[in-house]
Amino acid sequence: MKTTILFIYLILVLAINANAQIYATKNGSIKFFSDAPLEKIEANNRQVNAALNAGTGDFVFRVLIKSFEFEKALMQEHFNENYLESDKFPSSTFVGKVTNIKDIDLLKDGINEVSIEGKMTIHGITKVIREKGTFEVRQGKVSGKSTFGILLSDYNVAIPNTVGNKISKTIEITVDVFLEKVNN
Q1: Could you tell me the residue range of the domain that residue 52 belongs to?
Q2: 66 within 8 A of 80, measured Cβ to Cβ
Q3: Quick check: 88 pLDDT over 80?
Q4: Looking at residue 102, what DSSP letter applies?
Q5: Are 32 and 48 in contact (CB under 8 A)?
Q6: Residue 10: helix, strand or coil by DSSP?
């Protein structure tokens, strides 16, 4: 409940300017991939909330950790109970900006390179990140995509020695959000 209130608050902050063009979604996608010598681990989450203020470039997203789906139920259980401790840290967030928003025309169809900078919180730890991605504009809708890596140790995600060979220390994260205008 707290994270839903936080997300609503963040959308309101984005919309402070009455003329702001806000784009949002409640069903974006985040997947992560671990490519280790003994096992590949992949999980998908299709319940990502995201919002973009096209005027300022402010960009936020929130993802419920328990909404990640794994191929194997045991992996999902270990992920939630042992690694991300989803009862203690139920969501992850990003609060930041598209730093080159002034160079992007969201009213014109096309693919635009974007630079994103902000604070990402995972497992209760907040880190500043700077990443690249794309915004593809098609008929007034924005498809945002980015793929980047994070170190589990940066977010205090401990990997027991017994499974150390099965999980990569670096996790590849792919964000894919389809944003639609929520105001005129």
Answers
A1: 2-13+24-181
A2: yes
A3: yes
A4: G
A5: no
A6: helix
